[in-house]
Amino acid sequence: MEVKDEVLLETRDLTVNFHTYRGEVKALDHVQLQLYPHEVLALVGESGCGKSVTALTILGLLPQNAHILEGQVIFKGQDLLKMTSEQMRDVRAEGIAAIFQDPMTFLNPVLKVGVQLKEAFLVQKHLWSAETRSKSATTAGDAEIRGFLLEKESEKEASRHESGREREKIAEELSKDILKLVRLPDPERILSQFPHELSGGMRQRCMIAMALARRPSIIVADEITTALDVTVQAQILTLLKELRDTIDASSILITHDLSIAAETADRIAVMYAGHVVEVATTIELFRNPYHPYTQLLLKCIPDVRNPVTHLESISGSVPDLIDPPTGCRFHPRCPFAMEVCTTTKPVLKDIGNGHMVHCHLY
Amino acid sequence: MKIYEYIIRRLALMIFVLFGVSAIVFYLARGFPAAFAPWAQYITYRMKPSQIQAVIKAHGFDQPLYIQYLYWLKDVFHGDWGYSNWANGLPTYEVFASRFPFTVELTVAATILTVAIGVPLGILSALKNNTAADHASRIIALTGYSTPAYWFAYILQLVFFYYFYTWGLPNLPSGGVISQSLSGAVPTVTGLPIIDGIIAGNLAYTADAFAHVILPAFNLSFISLGYLARIVRASMLEVLRQDYIIMARSKGLSERIVIYRHALRNALIPAMTLTGLFFAGLLGGAIITETVFSWPGVGNVSLRAVFQGDSNFLLLYSLVTALIIVASNLVVDVMYVFLDPRIKY
Amino acid sequence: MTEQAVVSDTRESETKARIAELKYAIYLMRQNPLVLAGSLLVIFFLFLALTATLFVSPDSAVQLDFSRSYCWSGSSFSWTSLEAVCPTGSFLPLGTDGYGRSVLSMIVLAIPLDLSIAFIIVSIATAFGVLVGSVAGWVGGKFDEAMLRITDIFFAFPGLVLALVFAALFGRTIETLTIAVLLVWWPTYVRLVRGQVLVEKEKTYVEALRALGVHPPRIVLFHVIPNSIYPIIVQMSLDIGGVILTFSALMFLGFSPSPALPELGNLASDGIGHVFTAPWLIVFPGLTILVIALAFNLVGDGLRDILDPRLRR
Question: Is residue C101 part of a domain?
């Protein structure tokens, strides 16, 4: 399935702190992740475990009080953390796209949806030079888009430099097509509406469209279903599964819901208190969880087939990241904690088949 | 439809407020004849006591206060605002109307200055948050807000009129609307010297009028531009913290587009409304500035009216300014509906 | 459950919260040297106000010496070439006014007067606002409506007009001038407190206190108001500067009880006819007002910054 040697995106030893008035929050501690082509990697964990921080670090969108102490984010052979803002902007415009949690707050309320969608197209420099357009036309997944782009491309071969207005019109057409791609009816009308005039599910699809518009290699989806109710959640997940076959991109799906990960992901990475504790393919993880935290998490999920009278939970609470536990950050809550767990941090061990655990037990 | 309901309700409120203002001013200005004698506007020093009594009776000044109020209302509905003896015995309406355009010119100039300096200052402070530039603009802003208007006016005159002259630099006039020599050189169309000069194509006149308006306009705007800058800064900072700015940045948009298209559209809404209110407040006549700069506007004259106890003028003046303030509040609130698509009535 | 229990429960978490807030406040203060400077200035002026009579005897306000009126001890620099020079030997660093009194001494004497009037006005306005505003916010109904309309009317008056008319009418004593300025300021506080009470009224602790049968006046006075004190404090500190500006403006326009009164605006008015022959008369008293108002505005502005993001957390 995947070409194991070719990693699309890799984070190495990513360590990020936040300066707050209460002290230093050690949000990420040597996070290691690999993302391969054509796969969906789920990043799972409780709130505050650092999933979103990882995403923001990859995107280069950390707030001012964040400090990257060490680590690298390798994408297409380059370390994103060493790039200038200009370069990062280009990466975000055409390489890595993001979809966020709450479409109400993440869409600008005073701008029409059409404006916000068109700018996702207009920002891509490569779209507007005739040469690379033929290349991108053939890599586009959906038949509609592919056909449309080839058409436009032949038209525009004569004039390489379009005027601003022509670009606007092309962007408008592309926007309508992409709205069709995310299964939104009446794209014309939606483009002229404001975000608050649409329903939650429609807004989320628009955000997805804005990400897809850039034909990215990587899509980072941060809790995109959390703000939606369950039925809409199901629709969005179905859409993602459909798109997955047509769009040639890998996704990092961030969620706290293991069942969503189970449904959509190829591989799952479990995070706890700022570091990755276990990574495996979905089936492997559910069949053979190695890390105590993963095991406890899976036990917490009630099974419809075996009703119980008592819901399982994990004792203790998430540690305060200003003063995290020494050694392995999970040891205060771990039923298998040993002496060594309180003093030294475990190393990521490869069990085989791409299954990795971060624990002294192995 | 609901917005029309809202506007009508506000208009009704406005009428109520105007009645309230007029009642208060009426009570103060006419209710204490020992201090302010209302008939002083209708008599000359040559009149005998019996004639004065006749005047008092004729205008009903011996009646109870509420009856006088009703008489006054009746007169006003017929357009009669009474006479102002101290201002060459002219009808009060003329005293007001002849001077109002000058106040308008000053107000427009001051508002333009305030926005032109205040808004960029605020944006700059927000973008360079907590740096030296931010602190500097904060001091400028707060200094403006703490400055006594009369003090700054005299400082301006001292520097730009006197010192510039003694240093051999071209100096700005110390007062008035137009130089004596050019007075009357242009037909009065709007009453605003700068505009009239442009209409008549008389550039020298326009330039002279412009030179006269700079100092008083700057005096007025200096005090408020700081406040505007603070508001713009605060709302910019608020907006830049929002999620949709993260989203815009995640699209790889240039910082310029993020600021101008996404941030400013949201951040400037409170600034616009504030400007509207500032404009309205100034139209009420910046009494101190007009006095110091001998600006023949409405505020200048109102001071003399107060000293003369001219209830007619004070009533007209208060009502006009109250009307402007309340009406602009309404306009600003309605503007909000159009600026922010989320708001519905 | 008693009122004490409800209070102590909330008090405990409140104290913890307050300590955290204090840490945050200090953090912000460190980021903002201007607020520190403003606070120091305020302390300086308060100190000066209290000790003024130690430096300058109040008698110097009535010791008039017309032989040296409007003079400047010209050694250091000259304002214009038109000013008179003071007789040598006298310590007159800021020149003299029309009565031959040292401007510096007069300014020092004027500071306590201006500051105390400003404090009195702001305190009365706040007290009145708390009283009327909390009733309006709590009881609502017709009284609230009436208060809203009345404050609307007062807000419709531009700047000084109402104060001017009142002052011109009722004479020129410090008391009437105080009332005149109060007329302009009181509606702001009524609206502010009313707004705060409206918000607090919906909170659960109020519901708990009501369920216990605690009398509303007690609830408002001892619980609601203390919890909504922050915006009121910000408003008060910002207004002290504004009140001084307004009050001195009235004096400047000619409403002072006595032309020789050592009050900053009044001192400045002395210089009106002498802008080019004795500019220091306007410059220094006005500058003093500016610095005082600036100090209070810096503190108030800084307070607003400190208190505002806290609400968002």
Answer: yes
- CATH number of the domain that residue C205 is part of: 1.10.3720.10
Prediction ipTM score: 0.81
Determine whether the interchain pair A194/B341 forms a contact, defined as Cβ–Cβ distance below 8 Å: yes
Quote the CA–CA distance of B315 and A263 in Å, as a whole number.
76
What CATH number belongs to A9-95+215-309+322-334+345-355? 3.40.50.300
Q: Under DSSP, is residue B52 helix (H, G, I), strand (E, B) or coil?
A: helix
Tell me the per-residue pLDDT of B108-162, one tens digit each, with 9 for 90 and over: 999 999 999 988 888 888 888 777 888 888 888 889 889 988 899 988 888 888 8
Domain residue limits, chain A: 9-95+215-309+322-334+345-355, 108-213
pLDDT tens for each residue of A312-353:
777 778 888 888 888 888 888 888 888 888 888 888 888 877
Among chain B residues, the shortest Cα distance to C250 is held by B288
- pLDDT per residue as tens digits for the range C49-72: 888 777 777 777 777 777 777 777
What is the separation, in whole angstroms, between the first and last Cα of chain B? 8
Q: Is C124 a residue whose pLDDT tops 90?
A: yes
Is residue C233 in some structural domain? yes
Instruction: Name chain A contacts of C23, Cβ cutoff 8 Å.
Output: 21-22
Predicted confidence (pLDDT) at residue C79 exceeds the cutoff of 80: no
Closest chain A residue by Cα to residue B336 = A110
Full domain range(s) for residue C97: 32-311
Whether C144 maps to a domain, the answer reads yes
List chain B residues with CB under 8 Å of C32: 130, 135
3-state secondary structure chain C: CCHHHHHHHHHHHHHHHHHHHHHHHHHHHHHCHHHHHHHHHHHHHHHHHHHHHHHCCHHHHCCCCHHHCCEECCCCCCCCCCCEECCCCCCCCCCECCCCCEHHHHHHHHHHHHHHHHHHHHHHHHHHHHHHHHHHHHHCHHHHHHHHHHHHHHHCCCCCHHHHHHHHHHCCCHHHHHHHHHHHHHHHHHHHHHHHHHHHHCCHHHHHHHHCCCCHHHHHHHHHHHHCHHHHHHHHHHHHHHHHHHHHHHHHHHHCCCCCCCCHHHHHHCCHHHCCCCCHHHHHHHHHHHHHHHHHHHHHHHHHHHHHHHHHC
Provide the domain count of chain C. Answer: 1
Predicted TM-score (pTM) of the model is 0.78
Asked if residue C149 belongs to a domain, the reply is yes
CB contact under 8 A, C158 and B303: no
